[in-house]
Every structure is written in C-alpha cells, then in structure tokens.
C-alpha cells in the first residue's frame, strides 16, 4: 500500500467566470471517463473540482461497485470484500458526476464516440482509466476459466483464492507463490507469500506445507530499483520464515500438480498463486489506431494520446511513449502513485478545456510511503520520487504493518467515496 504527499497543485483558471453581457452561456464540454477504479474516480473528481460546471462528466464502468485493488490481497486471508469497496453511483452523484454501468466494446476516435453495450456515447474529451487485462497466453495455466493457479487481480479471483486456502488448511500441501514474466505488481507477491506463511503458522499446519517463492528478479525484492538494503532485509525475512526461493527464474506454465520453470525444474503444488502480466482491456485494444501492440494507450508527458489529443489515458491502461516499460519495475504500478498521475492527467485535460497554460511539470514531486504487510512482520518502504529507486526500508515489528495498512485502506476508501482526492 502507498500514500503520497505532493506539492501544491497549479490552478487551472478562474472558476465560475461570467460570460460577457448578452453572450450565450457556453454548453458544458462532454467528458467521458472509462473505468471505475482508483485512476478513473480520482480523475473524475479532480475534473469536477477544477472545472465545476464547465464540464458534464460521465463515468462508465462494467461494475457498479468500486473495489480497492491493493486491498484484494487481504481477501484470501479472510477480509470481506464489502470492507474494501463502495457503490459507485451514490458517490459520484454527490459530486454531480453521472454514472453508467456498461462494458466498453470499442472507441471510435474519428467520430469521438464510445460504443458501450451496443449504444453510441459521444464525447468531447475522453479519459481512459480502465486498468489492465491479463495476458493469458504468456503463462498457460495461471489465469482463465480452466486455470490451475490462483490470482488476486479481481474480486472474483481473490474470493476463489480464499476458498482454496480454506481447503488447503484442511489438507495441507506444497504452496508456490510466483511472479510471471512482465508482471507489474511484484511487491504484492512478496506480501502474499509472507501472509500465507503467517496464516499457516496461526493454524498450526506450517510444518505440513512448504512455501516456495519464484521471481524473475536477479535478487529478492529488487522492485526494479536495485537497492541493496531492502534486498538483504527481504532475504533475511524469507530465510527466517523458511521460504524457499528461486530468483532469476521464468515460469513457463502451470498445471494442477506442478509449476514448470524454463530450466526444466518442476515444483509440486497444492496451492499456487502467480502474479500475471497485464495488457490492455479488450474493448480498448479493439479500437483501431488507439493502442500499441499490447493494448496499452501510448500517451505523452501530459497523458494525451499522440494522434488524438482529446483522448487521455492514465494508470495501467496507459504507456508513456517516452518511457518504455521495464517488466521488473514495481515503482510506477502501485494504486496511489496511480492516483497522483490521475490528478496530473485531469489537470492536463482541464487546462485544455479551459484554454489556459499547462503547469510547468505534469507530475509533481512526491513522497511515496509504501507498507508491505507480512502478517506477523512488515516493512516500510520510502521513495522520494516516482523514478528514483527505493531509498529506505524500515522493519515494522509484529502486527504494526498490518494495523497501519488497515488504517491506510480505511482512509483511502473514505477519500475516494467522498471525492476528497486533493488530500494527501
């Protein structure tokens, strides 16, 4: 989990300015926000705050509830999903934002139209914040209707992982937690492995279930940063928990009995959780000329599409054209760094709508505090800027990390439910 403290935000334009005497009131610009996650909600709220009645904002999501993605990691270990989400429509309506529950089938940029549930919805400006879809073909067996491994990337997947854990506690066996090549949320796999160890010990079956951790990183906990301190700290923590590790390893496929590595190793598995690689969601991917080969929307430093400047994208649906993705990097992929970039994207769109000068920088300086909850132990990771490696890792003894993360989740949910996204 992450929280951020940013510097002061630039003003967009004087709000509520009256048109000259006798002039007609300009019609509000139609803004569509695709996606009801952290990025979509944050951007919609920020646009309403900055532009007030200059825009008519509609948010489209295929779900009627917001679920805080990073908190899904707690669901397999007993947390109820109604504790990590809320209904979208009432929250948005309180801020004068319309909500439509629909699945986006395609974007038609030439006509400034979104096709959703076979209905055409026009827009003047569009912000894509749909989040990702799993690249199912990359590692067969880890996702899909007939997968042999579990995941926590959706509410349904997390609930199934919870049911499978309950079955494992009755009949313990080998556990494998891994990171697929190109996976984004690397740190979540570390949390999951440590929480799994804590849960098995609490139920007095840890001696009957080995835990193996697999990562493509050259060393544990690189997180794309190469910071030696956190790597050594994680290695000691895994050693104390008797978690066997495979580093620099590539998972090729999974079946009901084994996890297979590229070097020919077969690891027996009774319970497997593999963090998958992501691509763009099908509805965006099917939009001609809008995405790259992986279904992601290429954007410039102000989060605008290069060929269609009225289209913006943010979060895991977007790819900064000047920054090729680094498969092992976990730094730009956490939920609350997503909220910071969503606000930056909203500010860029707001100045385009208002016709004012853009801010000097699209992404403000920030302080990134990340809590890694390991059940009975944890870490506080500190990073001073988005692209600078983690500079400091502090151990959090006992249940300190767990309690701190619970409080942080409650705060973030309150902030997103009430629209107070300008708060730290």
What do these coordinates show?
The chain has about 425 residues and is of the alpha/beta class. The chain folds into two domains: about 10-20 and about 25-135 and about 280-365, FAD/NAD(P)-binding domain; about 155-275, 3-Layer(bba) Sandwich (FAD/NAD(P)-binding domain). The protein is about 25% helix and about 25% strand. A five-stranded parallel β-sheet has the order 6-3-2-10-21. It has a four-stranded antiparallel β-sheet with strand order 1-23-24-25, sandwiched between helices. It has a four-stranded parallel β-sheet with strand order 14-13-12-18. A hairpin with an 8-residue loop joins β24 (about 380-385) and β25 (about 390-395). It is globular and about 75 Å long.
Largest sheet: 5 strands, parallel
Low-confidence stretches: 1-19, 324-334
Which CATH top level class of the largest domain fits? Alpha Beta
**Lateral strand order in the biggest sheet:** 6-3-2-10-21
User: Per DSSP, what share of the residues sits in E-state strands of 2 or more residues?
Assistant: 25-35%
Terminal residue distance: 14 Å
Helix content: 25-40%
SS class? alpha/beta
At CATH level 3, the topology of the largest domain is FAD/NAD(P)-binding domain
Average predicted local confidence, pLDDT: 86
How many strand units? 25
Overall, the morphology is globular
């Amino acid at each position: 989990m992450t929280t951020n403290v940013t510097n002061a935000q630039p003003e967009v334009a004087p709000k509520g300015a009256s048109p000259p005497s006798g002039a007609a009131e300009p019609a509000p610009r139609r803004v569509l926000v695709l996606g009801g996650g952290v990025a979509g909600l944050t951007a919609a709220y920020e646009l309403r705050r900055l532009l007030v009645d200059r825009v008519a904002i509609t948010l489209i999501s295929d779900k009627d509830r917001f679920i805080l993605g990073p908190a899904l990691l707690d669901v397999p270990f007993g947390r109820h999903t109604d504790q990590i989400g809320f209904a979208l429509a009432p929250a948005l309506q309180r801020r004068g934002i319309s909500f439509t529950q629909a699945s986006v089938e395609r974007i038609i940029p030439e006509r400034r139209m979104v096709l959703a549930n076979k209905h055409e919805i026009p827009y003047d400006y569009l912000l894509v914040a749909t989040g990702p879809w799993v690249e199912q073909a990359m590692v067969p067996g880890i996702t899909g209707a007939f997968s042999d491994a579990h995941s926590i990337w959706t509410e349904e997947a997390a609930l199934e992982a919870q049911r499978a854990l309950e079955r494992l506690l009755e009949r313990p066996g080998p556990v494998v937690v891994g990171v697929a090549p190109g996976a984004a949320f690397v740190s979540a796999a570390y949390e999951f492995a440590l929480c799994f160890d804590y849960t098995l010990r609490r139920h007095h079956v840890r001696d009957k279930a080995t835990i193996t951790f697999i990562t493509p990183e050259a060393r544990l906990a690189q997180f794309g940063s190469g910071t030696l301190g956190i790597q050594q700290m994680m290695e000691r923590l895994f050693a104390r928990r008797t978690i066997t590790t495979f580093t620099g390893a590539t998972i090729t496929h999974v079946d009901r009995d084994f996890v297979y590595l590229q070097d020919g190793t077969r690891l027996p598995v009774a319970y497997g959780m593999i963090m998958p690689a992501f691509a763009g969601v099908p509805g965006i991917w099917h939009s001609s000329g809008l995405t790259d080969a992986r279904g992601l929307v290429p954007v410039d430093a102000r989060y605008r599409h290069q060929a269609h400047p009225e289209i913006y994208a943010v979060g895991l649906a977007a790819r900064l054209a000047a920054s090729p993705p680094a498969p092992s990097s976990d730094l730009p992929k956490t939920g609350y760094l997503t909220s910071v970039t969503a606000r930056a994207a909203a500010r860029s769109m707001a100045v385009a709508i208002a016709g004012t000068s853009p801010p000097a920088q699209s992404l403000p300086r920030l302080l990134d505090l990340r809590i890694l909850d390991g059940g009975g132990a944890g870490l506080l990771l500190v990073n001073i800027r988005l692209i600078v490696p983690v500079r400091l890792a502090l151990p959090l003894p006992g249940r300190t990390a767990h309690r701190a993360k619970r409080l942080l989740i409650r705060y973030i949910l309150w902030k997103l439910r009430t629209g107070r996204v300008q708060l730290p």
